[in-house]
Amino acid sequence: MSVEQVERFGAHNYHPLPVTLVRGEGVWVWDDHGRRYLDMLSSYSALNHGHRHPKIVEAMKAQLDRVTLTSRAFHNDQLGPFLQKLSEISGFSRALPMNSGAEAVETGLKAVRKWGYKVKGVPKDKAEIIVVTDNFHGRTITIISYSTETQYRDGFGPFTPGFVVVPYGDAAAIEAAITPNTVAVHVEPIQGEAGVVEPPVGYLRALRQICDRHNVLLFLDEIQTGLGRTGKMWAFQHEDIRPDCIAVGKALGGGLYPVSAFCADDALMAMFTPGDHGSTFGGNPLAAAVGLAALQVLEEEGLAEQAALRGALFRQRLEALKSPKVKEVRGKGLLIGVELFVEAGPARGYCLELMKRGVLCKDTHGQVIRFAPPLVITDEEIELAMAAVAEVLT
Ligand SMILES: *Cc1c(COP(=O)(O)O)cnc(C)c1O
Asked: Cα(343)–Cα(312) distance, rounded to whole angstroms?
């Protein structure tokens, strides 16, 4: 019924698998026929804590009974504790709360541009931001202005200028693209949407050095890779570096509510003064209460460490399959991409077969199955999923 209504009354901007979910708990979801599935997509890493984590639900319910929306025209008593916790966990001294990931990215783009003009001395409207091929940072017009995916851009121009695209994973190409007007290098530590594409080892470290050498900011998008997903709290920690700023989203809302943020240190965040930038819902007390609980649960339950352990098992099992259909297994922690040979057929068919066997996941970029289960998944549940994966891939 709902499916027909969506077809009839909605815009056709998605192509979902044919399953209607009516309930979720932890790593499990149920459809409208009472069938149970392992959620191995986690809403693209927005469900790192699993569905309806009891502590986050409790925090949200408690806040629902107090006050939910105040706007930033007034103070609320939830925003402070949330920002302090985010600062402790991110290592950045300040955060600017927004709602969607795209808004956190847009906030960062504004910050680095303004820094370019006010601090670096770039001439008016000449700021350049270096980005990479196959990036995914969201769907606003400015963000798709530097997408290299034809479909994301087709029909949506004119685009925002000021972006220079170089190949992903090539640090020398970034350095070669830097001009006196370059204000930032802006990349994902691992490209999730592009098919869980990892840059060469040392890439982020090289970018850090290049940015330091040329007085350019390093702005990482940790929306999908952050908050424990890759086996560390932040993906940049795998290379022992510190970017100048990050965009955070998805799991920051604990799977309950849209919560995102742009994180930076004092000097960069000082680019924003009252009236420069804002959001009606950004930093609302409900979002702040949920965000704080989401961060506390990540820490208390050691979800980053869990992701490292469970991810190692999952990858080991995938590789042990020695499936003739599999070209490559990629990723870190519980962000795993399985690339199929073209001759094996598109990944969507495999996702449909997995669905029939009680495992939900999604194809990305034709040949890649993305596995990104909630970080609370157990070894037993991974073995369950693997039984289905083995049937489908061998
Ligand atoms: C999902 C995602 C975004 C956009 O987040 P929205 O909440 O959908 O706007 C941006 N960057 C990355 C890396 C993402 O995975």
From this structure: 28
83 and 36 co-located in one domain: no
Q: The domain that contains 374 carries what CATH number?
A: 3.90.1150.10
260 CA from centroid of ligand 1 (Å): 10
pTM reported for the whole predicted model: 0.98
Widest CA span in the chain: 62
Give the residue-averaged pLDDT of 124-131. 98
In the predicted model, is pLDDT for residue 300 greater than 90?
Answer: yes
Distance from Cα 56 to the centre of ligand 1, integer Å? 22
> Strand, coil or helix: what is 243?
coil
Total of domains in the chain: 2
Query: What's the pLDDT score for residue 83?
Result: 98
What is the Cα–Cα distance from 101 to 262, expressed in whole angstroms? Answer: 9
What pLDDT, on a 0 to 100 scale, did the predictor assign at position 182?
98
Does 166 lie in the same domain as 18?
no
Range of the domain at 64: 54-300
Same structural domain, 118 and 208: yes
Is there a single domain that holds both residue 186 and residue 226? yes
Tokens coding 54: 């009891």
13, 45, 47, 136: residue to mutate for ligand 1 pocket, most atoms within 8 A of CB? 136
Give residue 111's Cα distance to chain centre.
Answer: 20
- Please indicate whether residue 224, judged by its CB atom, sits closer than 6 Å to ligand 1: yes
Q: Mean pLDDT over all residues of the chain?
A: 97
Would you place residue 68 in the very low, low, confident or very high pLDDT band (cuts 50, 70, 90)? very high
